[in-house]
Specification:
By secondary structure, the chain is mainly alpha-helical. The chain has five helices and no strands.
């Protein structure tokens, strides 16, 4: 699911404003520490590093952490399948 989420964020159009958000902070407080993270990931996928940084400075670290976790989970999954076949 993390991989699907990263792909969806990478494919979204970062230069348009989105009308819907799942973030409860944006509804209750009108401020969210993660606001712009999706846009930052989308800009990063397009190679626009400066725009990604402007959208949210933690966009690149988030991609690295989530991508690393995806690789770790895939490695565990395939190792488990190999050990159960023997």
């Amino acid at each position: 699911m993390w991989l699907v989420g990263l792909i969806v964020l990478a494919l979204m159009q970062p230069d348009i404003e989105h009308l819907f958000s799942f973030c409860p902070f944006s509804y209750l407080l009108e401020w969210c520490p993660g606001c712009g993270l999706g846009h930052a990931i989308a800009w990063l996928a397009r190679g626009e590093f400066a725009k990604s940084w402007e959208a949210h400075p933690l966009g690149a670290p988030a991609v690295l952490v989530l991508g690393g976790r995806c690789l770790q989970l895939l490695r565990l999954h395939f190792n488990y399948k190999q050990t159960t076949r023997k």
